[in-house]
Amino acid sequence: MDAFFASVEQQSNPKLRGKPIAVIGSAGRTVITTRSYEARKYGVKTGMNLYEAKKLCPPLIFVIGNNEKYTHTCRELQKIYLRFTPEVEAYSIDEAFLDVTASHHLFGGPEAIGNTIKKEIKKQFGINCTAGIAPNILLAKLASDIAKPDGLKWIRPEDAGSVLECLPVKELWGIGSRFSEKLDAMGIKTCGELGRAPASLLRNKFGIIGEHLKAMGMGICNRPLHVHEEDPKSIGHSMTFDKNLSQRSAIEAEMLKLSDMVGRRARRYGFIGRKVTLTVRYPDFETFSKQTTLAGHTNHTHEIYRNAVSILDTIILKNSVRLLGVSLSSLARDQGQALLFAEQRKEKALLQAIDAVNDRHGDFKLIWASYLRNIAPPRVISPAWKPSGVRHIGVKN
């Protein structure tokens, strides 16, 4: 999608169309999450604070993001994609990969599919998208980046070499600033140079990933689509607070909320875990994590919480807390093993009842009493969000 959040907001509110807007969070501490193409002309960037953005673009309009709109639209977009192929990977909330190898002949070819999807999205949602077509997802991603905004580009196998020859390596999906700086120090600036570099040289510098980098420079990528969500390695939630937390009671209350969110999602999708991790970030952005291993697997809210608190007990906080995160890992499928003790059975039944009420009537309709100080849910969509499965995290504004 092109400037997805901003485009949705402009379509929802005609007064915003054609104007520079920036979508922001509703928290006191917020930065720009997406900006419209009108705002990009002024140099407004994602991650910029509001003061910087307004200085660059005085007419900039700030719009508080509506996460429910974006996730709803993402799920509806999936329905459009599935008309053309069952091989669809929802890569992120605004991006998807479709493998049309087996179906493109039914719809007039790959280019016809790309154009039809673009027209359907414009008709149904009033927003623009860009389509990239190529023999693999690396080049398809590159094609869509090149064609933005509102474009369509097809990189055929015979054209890949000429497209990549003079392309800076940093333009390739998966090569960030760290890798590009190291490659630049080796005299490798373009994808063509990367593809011609000796595999032994790259392997000595980067290890096994060196061969993968060489393949990328040649436009080779064998990664299959992740059509069916794989079992996660961990289930976690984190939260940045409007005001730094310094009181232990406030920190523990937030940890309980995060533990409840982790436990509830683990229970919903049938996972239990044996490791609990606590993540802490200070106001200066120093961040660290500590974990503990449990005697057995669990998805019980209070078991997760008690272990998170035990980790906190081992930490001497040197400052107030800007962010907290709780996660459950070393996951296994919950086989529904019978509990021996009546008290355990009661606790499990209570958690199931609470989950059922909140699933039916909305998050945090029933909460633990010690968290009554604040029941506002997170306002930021996780990069791991998916329209279905265990990565489908409920979002509210």
Description:
There is one protein chain. It is built from 14 helices and eleven strands. Among the domains are: 62 residues, 3-Layer(aba) Sandwich (MutS, DNA mismatch repair protein, domain I), CATH 3.40.1170.60; 138 residues, DNA polymerase, Y-family, little finger domain (Dna Ligase, domain 1). By secondary structure, it is an alpha+beta fold. α4 runs antiparallel to α5 and α12 runs antiparallel to α13. The longest helix has 21 residues.
User: In percent, how helical is the residue content?
Assistant: 25-40%
In N-to-C order, the SSE pattern is HEEHHEHEEHEHEHHHHHEHEEHEH
Strand content: 15-25%
Number of strands: 11
- CATH architecture label of the domain at 234-371: 2-Layer Sandwich
Short description:
The chain has 397 residues and is an alpha+beta fold.
